[in-house]
Structures are given as structure tokens and as C-alpha cells.
Design goal:
The protein is α/β, with parallel strands linked by helices. 30% of the residues lie in helices and 22% in strands. It contains ten helices and 13 strands. The strands form three sheets. The chain has a six-stranded mixed β-sheet, with helices on both faces. The chain has a five-stranded antiparallel β-sheet with strand order 2-1-4-5-6. Strands 12-13 form a two-stranded antiparallel ribbon. Helix 5 crosses helix 6 (158-172) and helix 6 (158-172) packs parallel to helix 7. The radius of gyration is 20 Å and the shape is globular. The chain starts with 5 loop residues before the first strand and ends in a 27-residue tail after the last strand.
Length: 303
């Protein structure tokens, strides 16, 4: 049996003397899954993404706390391991901020995904081979912005910049894509375009995706599995189609207003008609099955 793509065992994170962002969190994500992290502001979504990526160290207690990527330790007992460098090459990360160098070309920004795979002197000087440039162009074509390759990063719209960031992870050759609220600053059309691309990479190329999203509509529409964070722990881990507005309100109380926006309009890919997002909650399961009953929902403290 293959190892999980991401395996989190009893990790916690506290900044200074503040209350822990999360504590005793365990989670396993299988290769090829697309999993959404949801939760109100401050619930720990971004911190968890950064911890998985090895960018934020976890606490050193308990003694058996660790994060593994494909069976190899990224972090253990509060320290980033010696294997982290090699593992980071397999983990692509995109953020709400696009992290492009504004004065460099889009093509050069995308080729920065090769850093760590080419000699340091070449990466520092931006000296890339013809094959590496072609690889970057193929990635830009994959996300639909190849015609903008020679523009400066600052000349792209927000949605285009985020697509360039995705292309950079493709050039990197990542097996796992971690996305920290990648659509938070985008307009609805650009947000859907970015989510379509991420979903397509998951479905066609088998890239494992862990994506934090502030509004539940996008998580429900694109991610078969949802993990909800609340009060420092996992409050829900299960199929997206099992969530309903009533259940979400029960789970989050008044905070649910931040996560579920019933006024948002979506466009049905098949009909092109605008439908209220509430109707998305009543969609059948993506595999054609019925929406599970409440008893099928695994909720912390109610399982």
C-alpha cells in the first residue's frame, strides 16, 4: 500500500504565549486527492499550509509529532528535517500574493520553478537552457497565458499572475500542490478560472492538491473532500456533498456568515445559466451517488 501524499501526526503550533493556532492535529491525504481546508479567519488554515510545506516549524511536543510527504519526514518534533530540501522539490506552493518579480518577464518568473534543480550560479544569473525555456513555455500554455510570456510580471492582471504562479509549480515538477487562499484577491471570473486550472491538474495529472479557501462555495464545487478547522482542531473531515448550510451554521455558529455566502451567483458549466449558490449545496455527489445522510458525516465530538 502506498504512503499518503501528506501525513500529519499530532502536530501543534503556538506563537509565543498566545493560544495555540492548532493542537494535536492529525490528517492523512492520499495521492491524487483534492482537499479543501476551510475555516473562519484565524482558524489556522494558512499556518497549516506553511507547516506542511516546511516553512513554519511545528511545536516540539508531543514527542511523536511529525509531518511526512510520501512517507518521508518534512518535520519532526519541532524541527525541519534533513530530507526537507529534497521534499520541497516535490511540493509546490502558491499564495494569495502571487510572488512574481514584477520587473522580470513572465517566462523568467516561471523558470524560477527550476531553482534547486539547476546549478546555483545559473539560477542566480537567470541563465536557462533552451529546453528549460521550452519547458516553461509549455507550462504557460497549459495555464492559458503563453501569449504573455515576454511581458513583465507587473503587466499581468491578478488572475493571470496567479496562473503564472501555477505554471511555476508545473515547471518545478511538483507532485503536491499547496495553495493558500489562491483566489482570495481575485474577481469571481478569475477565481473560477484559477480553480478550473487547479482542478484540471488534479484530475488529469494526478497532482495532490491541498487548498485553503475562505468561502465554502468553491470548496464544495471543486473539492470532493473538506477539512474544517475550528478552535485549534479539526471539526469536520469528510465528503463535501455532506455539508449543508444548516450543518455549517451548527458547526461554526455566527462565523458561518464568513464561510457561506448565499448571495453569490455561479454559472452552471453545462447550461450557462446563473444559479444561486445555495442550490450547489443540493447537488448530487460528483460520482452520481446521493448526498449522505447526517449519520454519514464525521464530526469531531459527534462521530
Amino acid at each position: 500500500m502506498s504512503s499518503p501524499a501528506v501525513e500529519i501526526s499530532r502536530i501543534g503550533k503556538r506563537f509565543g504565549r498566545a493560544a495555540p493556532v492548532f493542537k494535536d492535529v492529525s490528517l492523512a491525504i492520499r495521492p491524487g486527492e483534492m482537499v479543501a481546508l476551510i475555516g473562519a479567519s484565524g482558524s489556522g488554515k494558512s499556518t497549516l499550509i506553511r507547516a506542511i510545506a516546511g516553512r513554519t516549524p511545528i511545536d516540539d511536543e508531543p514527542a511523536n509529532s511529525e509531518i511526512r510527504i510520501f512517507g518521508h519526514a518534512m518535520q519532526a518534533r519541532g524541527r525541519v528535517t534533513g530530507e526537507a530540501g529534497a521534499l520541497r522539490a516535490r511540493v509546490g506552493v502558491i499564495f494569495q500574493q502571487f510572488n512574481l518579480v514584477s520587473w522580470l518577464s513572465v517566462l523568467t518568473n516561471v523558470m524560477f520553478g527550476l531553482l534547486g534543480q539547476v546549478p546555483r550560479w545559473r539560477g542566480s544569473l537567470g541563465r536557462f537552457t533552451r529546453e528549460e525555456k521550452l519547458r516553461a513555455m509549455r507550462a504557460l500554455q497549459r495555464v492559458g497565458i503563453a501569449e504573455h510570456a515576454l511581458k513583465r510580471g507587473s503587466e499581468l492582471s491578478g488572475g493571470q499572475q496567479q496562473r503564472a504562479a501555477i505554471a511555476r509549480t508545473l515547471v518545478q515538477g511538483a507532485d503536491v500542490l499547496l495553495a493558500d487562499e489562491p483566489i482570495a484577491s481575485l474577481d469571481p471570473n478569475s477565481a473560477r478560472r484559477v480553480m478550473d486550472i487547479i482542478s484540471d491538474l488534479n484530475e488529469r495529472e494526478g497532482i495532490t492538491v491541498v487548498i485553503s479557501l475562505h468561502q465554502v462555495e468553491y470548496a464544495l464545487r471543486y473539492c470532493p473532500r473538506i477539512v474544517a478547522l475550528r478552535n485549534g482542531g479539526i471539526a469536520y473531515d469528510g465528503p463535501s456533498e455532506a455539508l449543508t448550510p444548516a450543518f455549517l451554521a451548527e458547526l461554526y455558529g455566527t462565523e458561518s456568515d464568513e464561510l457561506f455566502l448565499p448571495g453569490l451567483k455561479e454559472t452552471s458549466p453545462s447550461s450557462g445559466a446563473a444559479v444561486d449558490a445555495v442550490s450547489l449545496w443540493n447537488k448530487p455527489a460528483l460520482n452520481g451517488g446521493a448526498v449522505p445522510a447526517r449519520d454519514d458525516v464525521a464530526v469531531a465530538g459527534h462521530a
